[in-house]
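Re: the 400-residue chain
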Amino acid sequence: MILNIAILLTVVVVAFLLLQPRLRTIPAWMAMTTPLASIIGSGFLVLGPILDSAYGAYAPLAMAALCIGAYAFGSAIRYNMRVFETGAPEPRPVVLLDRLGSWTLGFAYVVSVAYYLNLFGAFAVSLTPLADPFSARMVTTAIFVLIVLVGWSGGFKSLEWMEYFSVTTKLAIISGLLAGLAVYFHARATDNGLIFNQPSMSGWGAVTLGFGLIVTVQGFETSRYLGNTYDLKTRLKSMRWAQWLSSAIYLLYILLMAYVFERGQLKTTETAIVDMMGLVAPILSVLLVAAALAAQFSAAVADTSGSGGLVWQLSGKRISPRIAYAILAAIGIGITWIADVFEIIAYASRAFALYYTMEAGLAALNAWRQEERAKAVPFALLAVLGVAIVFLGQPFESGG
């Protein structure tokens, strides 16, 4: 009972702090909510059980590798942003490759939003007697329509404010989750009860599973396509801040979770985290369902917002973000009714990896042209890593 109260108190205090008007007047913080919402979309729901099951006691190292890899790809994107937006006109082949990469990202956005909202639908109906695929898809379709209507009525700013309150809810509940896990971890450690599970995967299989998990730390690239709302300096800062904060959250989360569950308690379904956290504190199960709904909604809004800015830029400002929202929703609804969640996430993983590969390759070319050889070589190696992820990455669902 005391732990439940402490967790609820943590949630309330963090939510109160994040909703302070002064905080919402800081442009970099508000801009950061878009990439942050996307990065911590479904990752915190699935990464804990998956990494603990696959990598055992080495789960924190796997999480650190994912964060480092994501930050490296983010560095390539930030480098390209500086070159394209502050430098001289680029050669036509470079511009065409950049546009191809951006359209690849556009497809990835469509698929990722469908993934987030399909998870939203699954969690929503799981609390009701209508826990079936048809009902889940109906909920998903309704949320697609809601996001489009709000985007039409208020544009990006309206979506951003919806997203901010959703992100606030999610971060507050994650804070409560971390507080509960910290107490549980401390109790285990005091009683010499920490558990060091052996990995269930090793060698090349463990590496390819890590490749397939890149989508769980995806989302930082949304900062690049907020140019119709924020200047370059603010967008660069928002991407870095979002990656720093999300990495800190993920690393602490995995560190606290990796050593407190027996092998038999580990599952790898989308909702496994709810049952596992119920062992820590009953209140966490209820809070995590709420967090799941907030997470999927805010991540979907973030990627919808990013797609609007992306299409606006790629079309030479001929297609407004409002029209882009409608196109994304139409395609997303179609995907919802013809594919399951596992197929959707597999498509998204490869699409994002392909986009990151193109961005790393572009960064290498740009650095070489500007005679920054010390940067060109690492970016080229990063592009090679991206190719490996595209062709060898194993979707995390099949890793359990």
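The chain has one domain: 2-18+27-399.
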